[in-house]
Amino acid sequence: MAEAHQAVNFMPSLTSDRGEVELSGPMWQEIYLSGLRSWKRHLLRFWNDFLTGVFPATPLSWLFLFSAIQLAWFLQLDPSLGLMEKIKELLPDWGGQHHRLRGVLAAALFASCLWGALIFTLHVALRLLLSYHGWLLEPHEAMSSTTKTWLALVRIFSGRHPVLFSYQRSLPRQPVPSVQDTVRKYLESVRPVLSDEDFDWTTGLAQEFLKLQASLLQWYLWLKSWWASNYVSDWWEEFVYLRSRNSLMVNSNYYMMDFLYVTPTPLQAARAGNAVHALLLYRHRLNRQEIPPNLLMGMRPLCSAQYEKIFNTTRVPGVQKDYIRHLQDSRHVAVFHRGRFFRVGTHSQNGLLSPRALEQQFQRILDDPSPACPHEEHLAALTAAPRGMWAQVRKSLKTQATQALEAVEGAAFFVSLDAEPAGLTREDPAASLDAYAHTLLVGRGHDRWFDKSFTLIVFSNGKLGLSVEHSWADCPISGHMWEFTLATECFQLGYSADGHCKGRPDPTLPQPQRLQWDLPEQVHLSISLALRGAETLSSNVDCHVFPFSHFGKSFIKRCHLSPDSFVQMALQLAHFRDRGQFCLTYESAMTRLFLEGRTETVRSCTREACDFVRAMEDQEKTDPQCLALFRVAVEKHQALLKAAMCGQGVDRHLFALYIVSRFLHVQSPFLAQVHSEQWPLSTSQIPVQQTHLFDVHNYPDYVSSGGGFGPANDHGYGVSYIFMGDDMITFHISSKKSSTKTDSHRLGQHIEDALLDVASLFQAGQRLKRRRRGPGDEDSGHRRGFISNKTVDSKAPRTSPL
Predict the structure, then answer these.
(1) Of 68, 77, 174, 520, which has the highest C-beta tally within 10 A?
(2) Do 542-646+678-765 and 238-293+307-539 have the same topology in CATH?
(3) Does the annotation mark 544 as catalytic?
(4) Which of 277, 470, 500, 544 is catalytic?
(5) For 572-615, what is each residue's pLDDT tens digit?
(6) Which of 299, 327, 51 is nearest to 157 (CA)?
(7) Buried b (16+ CB within 10 A) or exposed e, 518-537
(8) pLDDT of 294-334, one tens digit each?
(9) How does it sit in the membrane (predicted)?
(10) With pLDDT > 90 as the criterion, what percentage of the chain qualifies?
């Protein structure tokens, strides 16, 4: 999602007005601290680690083994082959009357050792099995015998009924690729966008790097990979996110939308009550590890480490770098409405408050006529300010308004009750969707607490949205939570006939607590400056959202192609028509096949993709010729995507090598060149992970419409897309209005044209109108008909369709 912007700006975060910031401590110390951080995390979750660490065995299996050994001993059999007798000899002699107790203790110790050895063997075997990635490189319909055998063994060693963190101890570590392979892949990726002269110069830098610095840097990185849980993820979090001094708004946060065509209830407080209750139900399941782990192909587990910080988490600003503060529990949410802050308890003596009780509390806030105190209304703009400025101001707030600040930062999450409606409207569908995306991404600059892990936004007409801070986790994690929330609040909790949450209010609940901010005089000017900066940044963002309804993933699969690769190649064609040139393209791919893996970059602008685009713009090329080149480009993209998922990508390895070079004070012109590159096109697919929660056949409109993020640079685009059901793709496009080179609506029209043009290459898509546009062609007008036969504000089904 928004990580591309952070990835290209982490170098400025390592510089200051006085020059480059020196990283403290030698390389050995940093490797040691990386491992120490990993082990501290393991110790803090010791009990959960124990319960999941014995998986696929269970604690009851120890009791079964102990009982079997005792039974054999009673039958005068010795399954230990004399080991228990030796253990008895080592135990203290408590006298003859304790002879039987010594036997029981010896049996227990032997059972424990045998049980531990069996579990260790299972873990090692499963880790070795999960290190095999040949299955990912094979088509599902032509699976090799090796992969079939592998699948059978994984089923045997995986156990039954895994919980969220069951596989953490069995996941392999992310491998460090060969530095020669990484440099070769890098040069291959930049060849389409560089002139011959620039490519020769870059190749020279690369050869010098391989000859002089690569082996030393690689050795330290290899050492870290064996000591720490992941050789790149902790540095990625620190240097790409936490050391960034830019505003979080637009640069780091991203948004997620509600259902596109339906709103279950128009009552703001009711929607807030059900949504907050559903989120807290998700947290409850998360704490009890009742959420099953994500499995590829229903078999290959993904790392679940990022789930730990969804709730009770705040990114706290620092002068040099931020840090993530995570609480084990929080029993309240912080609420913002019309410039006022409230603390709303989420639990009573009987447990979690019901949706109707939460609705009652939110309605009390909506009905509260008290005005905002001076400067309180715009206080949250500080969280949108540059991080160094906010860190300085926060020191004053921590002294003068300790309780109010703690109530916000210590909340489970932040809730913003917006005073305006949002969402798709019949009167102006295109403009209303664009405005919806814009307000989710930036709001008014002062009505989101951007430091919180996420802000739940509830609009006056009952529409929902989510604004998510990026450092603690990536989009699939928050997307998983958001899918659960929408499905639960709509289908399971439901609403009464009058639109209220089900159940009865609780008149005994105390009023929501109004937070009092004692703002010192010196903070007032900072708030004004922060608000001005947030409004400037907000007004410069151009958001455009459009549902493409001509076809979806079902058509693409009938063409025997990957839906993601299909869209990525169409994006290359659309961007070329928009800008008249090729550019480095950032596509996010997950590396959660490995322990604590996060993301890798797929460089989608390949030589094969460029050949296809040129053919499409060449009037002399026939459709069969274009189709052949398209298939080659798709195959290349799939190979890059799979390599990235297997830990064999380019960018994270080069990033980690660069960090090592900074610690060692080694100057590498090649690495400096690599990390000064810009990404004019940043893309990401938002996957729908829990299809079982939604009945897309009977209720096709009840699917999240995805979300978006800001552009990666001032003259670039941010494009995300989600496959809604089988026959629609929703695109979210962003750019800067200040740029004369970009226009989100223009690119949107090019994307639509490109998708239709590519589809028309296939026999099944010949009926689709094909239009060829040249670079820089003007938008032919707003799209029409994407809400035809749709109900914008229909009610949700009263009973679950599941």
Answers:
(1) 174
(2) yes
(3) no
(4) 470
(5) 999 999 999 999 999 999 999 999 999 999 999 999 999 999 99
(6) 299
(7) ebeeebeebbebbbebbbeb
(8) 988 788 899 999 999 999 999 999 999 999 999 989 999 99
(9) Multi-pass membrane protein
(10) 65
